[in-house]
Amino acid sequence: MKNKDLLDALSCTVLCPGNLDKEIKGCYIGDLLSWVMGRAQEGDIWITIMNHVNVLAVASLADVSCVLLAEGVTMEEPVLQKAQEQNITVLQSSKTAYQLAACIAQLL
Amino acid sequence: MNEILKLHYVVDGNNFSLAGQAASDVKKMLKTLGMAPDVIRRVSIAMYEGEMNMVIHADGGEIDVDVTPKAVVMRLADRGPGIADIDLVMQEGYSTAPDDIRALGFGAGMGLPNMKKYSNDLKIESQLGIGTTITMRVDINSRG
Ligand SMILES: Nc1ncnc2c1ncn2[C@@H]1O[C@H](COP(=O)(O)OP(=O)(O)OP(=O)(O)O)[C@@H](O)[C@H]1O
Ligand SMILES: [Mg+2]
Does A60 touch chain B (CB under 8 A)? Predict the structure, then answer.
């Protein structure tokens, strides 16, 4: 499964396309950055409600497939520009992390 | 020591939103060298945590990275407050991060444990009031 397959499956919004062809291997939920850094696996969808610029560093260094903002959280334009520069996919949904994870569990 | 690459970074203690740039740059360089993704990921995570700690707890510092055929060695030196009890700060969950930093998702007290987990060797030298130097080695051929 690829990032682009999430768009229809979760009916989420693309805030930053990044690499929509990146392969998805799993999913991780968390808002504490070092926790995510230590536990998320390469290729995980990262579901979070954190939306500031440091999220991008974590997403890129931990090699997650994309950042999926839950509960309608948005990301400011300058941060999204940086995401595009770093080729990071940022998606957004109004669903809760639980609802998203339940849908993703069906897909994986 | 047959070095392949030597890198040096000055980490600005006042620019929170630029923090992590050194780690991102090292990641890029190692990718260019064609290093294994697993090694790159471990170096990136260990270095990012060390770099963030410099910014959050020590007002910045300097990082040297040496890449040899066998290992990536990172040396992070700061002139911050120093660490009084190294065993204490190595515990998962221990953090003195201020509230405004915690609101951004830092302060889980997992940074140093991650640095230990993802490196093959971690050495902390610290003197109160003088600063801290952390040396981490990630081996290229064996898993940590
Ligand atoms: N370079 C440093 N100089 C002085 N104190 C430090 C330094 N690095 C870490 N510490 C101390 O060690 C504690 C634990 O560090 P650690 O990286 O594990 O967690 P944290 O930075 O507080 O939170 P997290 O990394 O999970 O966001 C810090 O809260 C701080 O008190
Ligand atoms: Mg830390």
Answer: yes
CA-B113 nearest atom, ligand 1: 18
Report the topology of domain A3-107: 3.40.1390
Cα of A32 vs its chain's centroid, Å = 14
Across the interface, whether the CB atoms of B24 and A60 are under 8 A apart is answered yes
Q: Per-10-residue mean pLDDT for chain B, 144 residues long? A: 88 90 96 94 97 96 97 98 98 96 95 98 98 98 58
**With 60 as the cut, is the pLDDT of residue A39 above it?**
yes
Q: Does B117 touch chain A (CB under 8 A)?
A: yes
Q: Please give the ipTM for the structure prediction.
A: 0.88
Alpha-carbon distance B91 to B104, whole Å? Answer: 21
B71 forms bridges with which residues in the sheet?
Answer: B139
Alpha carbon separation from B32 to A41, A104, B69 (Å, rounded): 22, 33, 15
Identity of the residue in B24, B44, B111 whose CB atom sits nearest the CB atom of A34: B111
Q: What structural domains and CATH numbers belong to chain B?
A: 5-139 (3.30.565.10)
Which pLDDT does position B110 carry in this prediction? 97
